[in-house]
């Protein structure tokens, strides 16, 4: 959680435009993309692109967008808002471990070719938990 002092120092827009944050986001995206590429190669699936959105969200940690079955993209949302954005300045950032668990969940949607949380998805998610 950011401290009160930190929140007064930088607005969310200033955080987004910070060169250090941009570099960290790029490095994390590349790391997660490598993981997904490895998983996709092992599973003999197409490689979905991974994106990181710094837009604050209350509920979703990530989303899988499928245009066609088996062809989609994964978006992770690491900034958690305590109240509906942009009304609040209360937010925190997920850890890398939390983001990796979200990545596994979203990749399970890709493997199952199933956006709802049905049986195929649950089987794929159990397989991802072992990785």
Describe this structure in words.
The chain has 131 residues and is α+β, with helices and mostly antiparallel strands. The protein has a single domain (4-129), classed as Zincin-like, CATH 3.30.2010. It contains five helices and five strands; from the N terminus they run H-H-H-E-E-E-E-E-H-H. It has helices at 4-9, 12-17, 19-43, 96-112, 119-129, and strands at residues 50-52, 62-68, 71-76, 79-81, 91-93. The strands form two sheets. The chain has a three-stranded mixed sheet with strand order 1-3-2. Strands 4-5 form a two-stranded antiparallel sheet. Helix 4 (96-112) packs across helix 5 (119-129). The model is unreliable at 1-8 (pLDDT under 50).
Can you lay out the helices and strands and say which pair or pack?
Elements: H1 4-9, H2 12-17, H3 19-43, E1 50-52, E2 62-68, E3 71-76, E4 79-81, E5 91-93, H4 96-112, H5 119-129
Parallel strand pairs: 1-3
Antiparallel strand pairs: 2-3, 4-5
Helix pairs in contact: 3-4, 4-5
Quick structural overview:
The chain is α+β, with helices and mostly antiparallel strands and 131 residues long. Helix content is 50%, strand content 17%. It is built from 5 helices and 5 strands; from the N terminus they run αααβββββαα.
Shape summary: globular
CATH class: Alpha Beta
Helix percentage range: 40-55%
Q: Which second-level CATH architecture applies?
A: 2-Layer Sandwich
CATH-defined fold name? Zincin-like
């Amino acid at each position: 959680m950011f401290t009160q002092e930190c929140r007064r120092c930088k607005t969310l827009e200033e955080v987004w435009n910070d060169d250090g944050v941009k570099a960290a986001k790029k490095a994390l995206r590349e790391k997660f993309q490598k993981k997904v590429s490895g998983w996709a190669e092992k599973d003999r699936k197409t490689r979905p692109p991974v994106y990181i959105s710094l837009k604050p969200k209350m509920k979703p940690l990530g989303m899988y967008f499928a245009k066609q079955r088996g062809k989609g993209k994964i978006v992770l949302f690491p900034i958690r808002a305590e109240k509906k954005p942009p009304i609040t300045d209360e937010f925190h950032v997920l850890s890398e471990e939390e983001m990796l668990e979200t990545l596994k969940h979203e990749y399970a949607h890709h493997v199952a070719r199933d956006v709802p949380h049905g049986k195929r998805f649950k089987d794929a998610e159990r397989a991802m938990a072992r990785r």
